[in-house]
Amino acid sequence: QVQLQESGPGLVKPSQMLSLTCTVSGGSITTSVTAWSWIRQPPGKGLEWMGHMLYDGRTFYGPSLKSRTSISRDTSKNQFSLQLMSMTPEDTAVYYCTRGIHDEYDYWGQGTQVTVSS
Known about the structure:
Layout: E1 3-7, E2 11-12, E3 18-25, E4 35-41, E5 48-54, E6 59-61, E7 69-74, E8 79-84, E9 93-101, E10 104-108, E11 112-116
Parallel strand pairs: 2-11
Antiparallel strand pairs: 1-3, 3-8, 4-5, 4-9, 5-6, 7-8, 9-10, 9-11
C-alpha cells in the first residue's frame, strides 16, 4: 500500500518561499508509471492542481502558478518536494501530495495546513 506524508512549515511569511516535502512509502517514485502531484485547497474553495512530476522526472505546472512553482525530487529518499515562491495570504491552504494523473488520484497524503501571515 502506497503512503504519502507531507512535511514542512505550517507558517510562512508573505514574500517568502514555501518548501514542502512528500515522503513516499510502498512505491517508488521512479519506477511506478504514474505522476506525483501537489494539490491545494484554500479555505472555502475547491481543490487546485498545482503541478506534478512524472516518474521519469518531467514536470508540469498549472498555468496560474507556473511562474513561481517548482517540483523536484530526491530519488535516494523516495521524496518529491514543492517550492512555491513569493507567498501571499491568498496562498493559505491545505496542501496535499498525491499519486495520480489526469484527475485520477488513488493515494493522498493527509494534507498539511500552510498559513501565510506576518
